[in-house]
Amino acid sequence: MIFGRSERGKPPVEPVTLKILVAGGFGVGKTTLVGAVSEIRPLRTEEFLTEAGRPIDDTSGVEGKNTTTVAMDFGRITLREDLVLYLFGTPGQERFWFMWDELSEGALGAVVLADTRRLEDCFAAVDYFERRSIPFLVGVNCFEGAARYPAEDIKRALDLDDDVPLVLCDARDRESVKEVLIGVVQHAMAQAADRRQAVTT
User: Fold this and answer.
1) Which InterPro entries match (predicted)?
2) Residue 137 within a domain
3) Cα–Cα distance, 106 to 134 (Å, whole number)
4) Tens of pLDDT along 45-101?
């Protein structure tokens, strides 16, 4: 099926659309992740880093980065003919965090992208989704040259609840990102089912 049309003789399928956030620290790969998987040309709001922002933009560990997202990234991926995900990448720097409330409105769940070289940079995103009871998955972006750690060690370092999934991924690879997004949808649906069951018992 081509988006918006169906095969001859079959009734058109009206896809369910779900909103997923992609959050994490500055330079962790959010824009790359959205761009790697989006089936449309992603909307990006990147601007060049300036001397004026140098005192507040911590580029430690990402010295080669010269642009930053100032509003959001937006992409779309069709997982099945009846399931479409809209992806919203959040800005990473603290001075843009005020936008997160607007972006998270109506979200099914979120990916918190992490870099083991700067793990503390994703604490704010983890805390944000925990406080708002938004289901999330942690995706550890495996940068070249970064040390590899067992998933359980990273979960302990982030103080994640046992039911929060953590997966290793490559934000540049479409198939790797698709697995992350499928994991978020499954986790969010499982949590919704648990809540429904708790209400009826």
Assistant:
1) Gliding_Motility_GTPase, Gpn, P-loop_NTPase
2) yes
3) 10
4) 555 544 545 545 555 555 554 555 545 789 999 988 899 999 999 886 565 566 778
Q: Over 131-167, what HEC string results?
A: HCCCCEEEEEECCCCCCCCCHHHHHHHHCCCCCCCEE
Q: Give the CATH number, domain containing residue 32.
A: 3.40.50.300
Question: Residue 142 — φ and ψ, nearest 5°?
Answer: -85, 85
Which range marks the domain in which residue 142 is found? 16-44+69-200
Residues 99 and 45 sit within 8 Å (Cβ to Cβ): no
| Tokens 């959010």, residue located | 30
As beta bridge partners, residue 169 has 141
Put the strands of the sheet holding 109-114 in their side by side order. Answer: 73-80, 83-89, 16-24, 109-114, 136-141, 166-169
